[in-house]
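Re-running Pilus assembly protein to confirm reproducibility after the cluster update. Everything else is unchanged from the original entry.
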Amino acid sequence: MMNFIKNFRKDDNGAVTVDWVVLTAAVVGLAVAAYTAIETNTKELAAQAATTVKGEVGK
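Result of re-run:
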């Protein structure tokens, strides 16, 4: 049993996979945050443009 524990501690297989999972999760999180910010600002800009166009047409 002690031999198994020593080998388990020394074995680093899978460590790179964990790094990639964490990195990928961070990238996805940043993408979601960016998408949310862009979507919100785009809707506000479209609303302002619609208001301006309605004002110009009414003159």
